[in-house]
Amino acid sequence: MEIANAFALLANFVIVPATAYGAQLALGALGVTIIFGILRFANFSHGELMSFGAMVTILVTWLLQMNGIGLGPLPTALLALPVGILATVAMAVLTDRFVFRFYRKKRANPIVFAIVSVGVMFMMAGIIRIVIGPDDHSFADGERFLISYGDFKKLTGWDQGIAIKQTQVVTVVVTLIVVAFLFWFLQKTRSGKAMRAYSDDEDLALLSGINPERVVLIAWIIAGSLACIAGTLYGLDKTYKPFIFLQILLPIFAATILGGIGQPVGAVLGGFIVAFSEVTVTYAFKRFLAYLGPDGWAPDGLVQLLSTDYKFAVSFVILVVVLLVRPTGIIRGKVI
Amino acid sequence: MTRRVVFLYGLMLLVLIGVGFFQSWNVAFGIFNLCLISAVMALGVNMQWGYAGLFNVGIMGFTALGALTAVLVSMPPVQEAWAVAGGDLALSFLCLVATVVAIVLARRMVPPAFRMLVTAILVVAGYFLIGVFFLPATDRIESIDPALSGYLGGLGMPVLLAWPLGGVVAAGAGWLIGKIALGLRADYLAIATLGISEIIIAIIKYEEWLSRGVKNVTGIPRPVPYEVDLVDTQWFVDLATSLGATDINEASSLFVKFCYGLLFIVVLAIVMWLAERALKSPWGRMMRAIRDNRDAAEAMGKDVKARHLQVFVLGCATCGIAGAMLATLDGQLTPTSYIPLRFTFLIWVMVILGGSGNNWGAVLGGFVIWFLWVEAEPLGNWFMATVTAPLPDDSAIGAHLMMGAAYTRYLLMGAILLLVMRFAPKGLIPER
């Protein structure tokens, strides 16, 4: 019984939220890693691209809600997502056409690309704040819980319940579908193989007749779709705040580097590792240990490694440790 | 100094004078002072990017460290806090030193295979050991009169001393970060520095015993007279009337801004002189050689990593000095205002617009961009008003666009950065 309660407590406060957060980070990191693999630069505008996608989705969601169209228990945002994806892909392809392509032709230094992506970030931040404003927006609707805290307790008779929010389920399911599709695409299709070849060795790929502009276009389409989905899911799960997307860049970059730059599997792995470390390190284990220990005993302190204020610091510490110990990442990234 | 430099600086001065005539002299001097601080920061970034090609996006963190130093140096100490918690703080500091020494020793003695494991165990053990003394001490400090103090206070020394010290503190942090992140790929340095600056801000925001956190420290002592005192001082009143001032209050606030301006000009001149000397010395030529062809420089026997660390530390120190100046000018430390969009990326736009690698360009960029950043708001309002003019007065879209007017400055900055990078990558004043 005690063990079950301890598990429920841990699941409710650590495992479930960290899984959802990890899925969001994994999607974000996948986008960054694909651009890293194909265009070979750290795209600082990826956070704002996520924000842009989420913004379009929110606007369409509002339109649908006004007309009374919904998905029943599922969030309306899922219905609006395809439009958001289209808009984000258009945005990504347009920035490539008008900004990045020029430097690609010149074979500019990766740092130049990174600086230019900062400029893109500024412009996108401006557009987003002009269109939707700097305030928070909550746009989740439908059923709130798959199973609520109280229902779970009634069902099992334990002291502790596990609440699973609908947005968390949606996040994980959508991520599973997207990641499965992406890996199928990269492994099985001709274009996917071309992309992997291009990412492995640019010159060799060119020699075998792969069209670089096509590869780059597909990379941006994938990155844009992933960004929109990741941003929307993050906004659904928490709330949509424009400024958060600059902060979330850090865990996303950490996940990318931890997994190995340019490695899609690594990005997913990295996303979950970063999310679980963030949540575990800032969780107070006092009650968890109290359940496991002898009756009536509880630890003195909160048994919390770091206060929740330093959530973002965790991803940075992971980043530094990876850079020091294994700069290539878990799955050896090719760029170093 | 070429004709182009003189022309561009003259133009900038004319624009500022124009602000004085058309808006008000107070606004003009306010902008001018912040332009000077921005210029110092831009010089710091120029050292790292322009001389050495290091992409540091952690400027905000170093600026905030400088600002924190201003508080720690100039605010009066809170005796009570030291009395209740000084001993425990000293003990936790000793524990920190002991942990570091233990780790260094252990890494020397343990065979390489176990090195990681032993280090990790020692880090965790040390963390908890420090916590035993540290956490109760900070709780006690924060519970002392939380509305007014609740922190350790500073040393109660003149605030001008904080300017060089802010540089020293930022240099120390820069050395530590440089040790970790330099020598890796260039984009890694960018990401790592972005991370460290977020952490520095988080510490200043949440460690209330040190900086009062989000409760802000206000009333940092000034190096210049206060307006309220000036109004009552005879010589100032005489001076103001002899200069033909009509409003004595406005005159006093102008005078204070003028004094700040003088102090900042002195700092900028010193930094500028040193930076120019360094750039023209054999050291500067070596830095540029490393930037342009790292492998060739290395083959010539230059220690690239050590030189990069050197210039990184110098740039960070310059940003720290600017941070201390900024906190002094504001008279307060507000951790929430240290956001990367303003203190990091804006400074980058300054350097790139001005001309990377050219100190005169960086300073000019600091002036132009800060001016545009401030004036973008009225400009944005005017722009949005023009755009929405054909719409009816009660139109929701019109009102919404007017609300967003303040954010046209982001658009403007992004556009400047992109256009300069594309069409004039050498900037307004190219490197010689």
Distance between the termini of chain A: 50 Å
What is the terminal-to-terminal distance of chain B?
A: 11 Å
User: What's the oligomerization state?
Assistant: heterodimer
Low-pLDDT residue spans of chain B: none
Strand content of chain B: under 5%
Strand order of the largest sheet of chain B: 1-2
Mean pLDDT score of chain B = 87
Q: Please give the largest β-sheet of chain A.
A: 2 strands, antiparallel
Instruction: Please tally the β strands of chain B and state the result.
Output: 2
Structural class of the secondary structure composition of chain A? mainly alpha
Portion in helices of chain B: over 70%
DSSP strand content of chain A? under 5%
**Secondary-structure element order of chain B, N to C:** HHHHHHHHEHHHHHHEHHHH
DSSP helix count of chain B?
18
Low-confidence stretches of chain A: none
Subcellular location (chain A): Cell membrane
Organism (chain A): Thalassobaculum litoreum DSM 18839
Keywords (chain A): Amino-acid transport, Cell inner membrane, Cell membrane, Membrane, Transmembrane, Transmembrane helix, Transport
InterPro entries (chain A): ABC_transp_permease (IPR001851), BCAA_transport_permease (IPR052157)
Quick structural gist:
The complex is a heterodimer of chains A (336) and B (432). By secondary structure, chain A is mainly α.
Overall description:
Chain A: This is Amino acid/amide ABC transporter membrane protein 1, HAAT family (TC 3.A.1.4.-). Chain A: The chain crosses the membrane at residues 20-42, 49-65, 77-99, 111-132, 168-186, 215-236, 242-261, 268-285, 305-325. The complex is a heterodimer of chains A (336) and B (432). The mean pLDDT of chain A is 88. Chain A has helices at residues 2-39, 46-66, 77-105, 110-132, 149-156, 166-188, 190-200, 202-207, 212-237, 244-247, 249-259, 264-281, 286-292, 311-325, and strands at 145-147, 164-165. Chain A has a two-stranded antiparallel ribbon with strand order 1-2. Chain A has 14 helices and two strands. Chain B is mainly alpha-helical. In chain B, strands 1-2 form a two-stranded antiparallel ribbon. In chain B, helix 1 (3-22) crosses helix 16 (359-388). The radius of gyration of chain B is 24 Å and the shape is globular.
